[in-house]
Amino acid sequence: MQTERLRRVPYEASAWSAAAKELVDARRAAPMFPAVRVCPLLGFLDKDRKQVGCLGHPLATGGTDLRDCGVYRSSVCETFTCPSFGWLTDGQARLVQAACADWYLYGLVITDVEYVRGCLRLLEWELGGPARPEQMVEQPAVLAAVRKLFALKETAPRRDPKAGVFGRFTKDTEGEPVPRMLDYMKLGVRASPEDDVVLCLGYTPDNATDLLASRELVRAHVKAVARAMASPR
């Protein structure tokens, strides 16, 4: 919607500011976390809708800088670096980039550092040794298995879409993000290594059966990656 709306607007600051306000006002739902501003200038940069970026950037407009018309100043956009790249290693970030074939899945995974770390930690436990992302990206079969593992962020079944959960976080009474924990006493089970990833996937199990099923889903995908790594190239 943002892409189509802004394509009809002349490259003038007043027109873009008005269109940006219109887009914000037309949103059907408020952002999950109010402190995280969602810019109305975000859109598809190509006709095939495979590349997402700032429609007000000079490289997108042909030279006119319209970034100040969004919710951030151009000076912020110019210097901002995704925090994930300060927390993930270079190899981990490149693995996410290589395994997540489209912009949507990439966005879901790269912003959830604990999910990436948790998946790789489970893989190392399964292998009984280090999992080296730099080598994994060079093996097509391994990369395909990692893609399916990471894609659980999008495909994992039986999650409650109304739970208001973003990965390991939910909202407190004031709308601020707070980490979620599992009540093992209530569930009647012990903690398991898979639980960090289960929480990152957005599961909110209220009984042992659901928790065990979500663990098995994660475990099966991790084992598939391990098998691919153990197979001859």
Structure, described:
The chain is mainly alpha-helical and 233 residues long. It has two domains: 2-79, no CATH class; 87-230, no CATH class. The chain is built from 14 helices and four strands. The strands form two sheets. Strands 1-2 form a two-stranded antiparallel sheet. Strands 3-4 form a two-stranded antiparallel ribbon. Helix 10 runs antiparallel to helix 14. The longest helix has 23 residues, at 208-230. 28% of the residues are buried.
Report the portion of residues in β strands.
Answer: 5-15%
Helix proportion of residues, in percent? 40-55%
The number of distinct helices, counting runs of at least 4 residues, comes to: 14
Principal-axes shape call: globular
Structural class: mainly alpha
Distance between the termini: 44 Å
Strand order of the largest sheet: 1-2
Rg from Cα:
20 Å
Mean pLDDT value? 93
What summary fits the major beta sheet?
2 strands, antiparallel
| SSE string | HHEEHHHHHHHHHEEHHH
Counting DSSP E segments of at least 2 residues, the number of strands comes to 4
How many separate domains make up the residues?
Answer: 2
What is the topology?
Elements: H1 2-7, H2 13-25, E1 42-44, E2 52-54, H3 58-61, H4 74-79, H5 84-87, H6 90-99, H7 103-110, H8 113-127, H9 133-136, H10 140-150, H11 152-155, E3 169-171, E4 177-179, H12 184-187, H13 195-200, H14 208-230
Antiparallel strand pairs: 1-2, 3-4
